[in-house]
Amino acid sequence: MGEIAIKVDGFTKYYGDFKAVDGISFKVKKGEIFGILGPNGAGKTTTLECLEGLRTIESGVMEILGLNPWKEASKLKNLVGVQLQSSSLPPNIKVKEAMELFSSYHEVKPRYGLLKRLNIDNKLNTQYHALSGGEQRRLAIALAVVHNPEILILDEPTASLDVQSRIVLHDVMKELKDSGTTIILATHDMSEAEKMADRIAILLKGKIVVIGSPKEITASGSALTKVSVRTVGNSLEGTESKVSDEYYVFYTDNPGHKVTEIINLIDSKEDTLIDLRVERPSLEERFLEITSVGGVR
């Protein structure tokens, strides 16, 4: 497993009589990007807020770098960076002032280069309330990583971001991971989770219903693999395939066998293959499968 950066064991959280999180357990190793997915109300934000030390836990264990995030928050101050879904920055604070404030809090020099990289360096004297939603999100990300934290917690980091800003953020995340930073990523963007996360936990009604790498999770579902084929002639006409944009499309639970069968059929009819694509089920398809039936099949 490698050296453990985050340990959660039997974590439970109530709001009154409502059990928001029900005895979940997981470990995150150092330098890993760990995704947390789930529909609204699944317990994602509660889990993050407890990891961040913003809320106490009813039972179980939570440790970040061996420290209790609630009782030992001062020791974690310069070790953890947090980007929240909604910012609590004063509406009239300027971008430059926010950078100086967070840098002072973490006892580091302001990193204006981060603002330039995230394309908000031209907003140094703009007040927070005057920024667009995407600009506010980019500022929050810059403030979360200004002190090069060992642990970075990102809650919907790319919401409201344009395509270019998403690419920049993903590059920053990869660089942080390569330098040894451990990242917790909570997102509704399935393609982002599939692309960025080493492992993923899917929460449903306060419980973890599946945990593993994106490939492990998608491979465990009942969805079929899609094989799309385009040829010069019409050698695949009359098969069980569907036709879409000049491609014959097959769905199978045994892609290796199906591809061999298709190629043999094309050769036997002296046709010529132009293109062949094999697409495994996506994480989004597997997520919908899990959440629609209330658990793992």
UniProtKB/TrEMBL annotation:
CDD domains: ABC_DR_subfamily_A (cd03230)
UniProt KW keywords: ATP-binding, Nucleotide-binding, Transport
InterPro entries registered for this protein in UniProt: AAA+_ATPase, ABC_transporter-like_ATP-bd, ABC_transporter-like_CS, ABC_transporter_ATP-binding
Stretches assigned to the ABC transporter domain: 6-230
GO MF annotations, alphabetized: ATP binding
The UniProt record lists the keyword Nucleotide-binding: yes
Family the entry assigns: Belongs to the ABC transporter superfamily.
Protein's UniProt name: ABC transporter ATP-binding protein
Species per Swiss-Prot/TrEMBL record: Clostridium simiarum
